[in-house]
């Protein structure tokens, strides 16, 4: 079944309420760049809690469609009553994927300014409860969320919590990291792209929660990605390859943890 049709069916089967169609929105990053985003929202006036989803180094588009992981999470979160905003940090800056590039024009510290701009925009919307805005980040977006929770607070609003999937954490071992809010890091212990142990170490130091999944690799929460390798600019392997793919057990556990954290915020 083609992926866009699967997303539509997922919305129909999962949601207990009618859902608004996705909306294209625009807002200003704290670095003054005009950022585009995709917004999903439950039907009704709200105000609803909100989630900002931060894409990885591959960007958030695949052949003109929202990538499968983002679409999967958007369906689940919107059906549970959350507004979901995915800022596109790459497209407005003329970028696509940066996974194979070491000299990146946009890095996670800079992308944290985009997340702050997204939070400020959401806080101004009448259908959003600005006291309950959370961050979820994946890979490069996860590292972005680490910066966002430790530096560059939005103006007049802040994130209630963050759930972060398989970020790169080595830089924080040297610089230190102290989040302003509760943070949970979910990581595959077999990850050979962004290793898990530095993330476990910074979590221990900062009092954040860390959950490691034995045998799980990068992208373990993807809805349907057979295990495979690909080339990346940063790899723990001498051949420059990294392993990615779904781990069904880790994915299901992570879904439960994310939803529990968001319901409690």
How would you describe this structure to a colleague?
With 265 residues, the chain is of the alpha/beta class. Helices cover 32% and strands 25% of the residues. It has seven helices and twelve strands. The strands form three sheets. An eight-stranded mixed β-sheet has the order 1-2-6-3-7-8-9-10, sandwiched between helices. The chain has a two-stranded antiparallel ribbon with strand order 4-5. A hairpin with a 2-residue loop joins strand 4 and strand 5 (65-66). Helix 1 packs parallel to helix 2. The radius of gyration is 17 Å and the shape is globular. The termini are far apart.
Give the overall shape, derived from the CA principal axes.
globular
Number of domains: 1
Radius of gyration: 17 Å
CATH architecture: 3-Layer(aba) Sandwich
Instruction: Please provide the ordered H/E string of secondary-structure elements.
Output: HEEEEEHEHEHEHEHEEEH
Kindly provide the name of the CATH class.
Alpha Beta
- Beta-strand portion reads 15-25%
- What is the CATH third-level topology name? Rossmann fold
CATH superfamily: Alpha/Beta hydrolase fold, catalytic domain
Estimate percent helicity: 25-40%
Distance between the termini: 36 Å
Helix/strand-derived class? alpha/beta
Q: Got a strand count?
A: 12
Mean pLDDT across all amino acids? 91
- Which spans of ≥5 residues are poorly predicted at pLDDT below 50? 1-18
Biggest sheet descriptor: 8 strands, mixed
Annotation field: number of helices: 7
Largest sheet: spatial strand order: 1-2-6-3-7-8-9-10
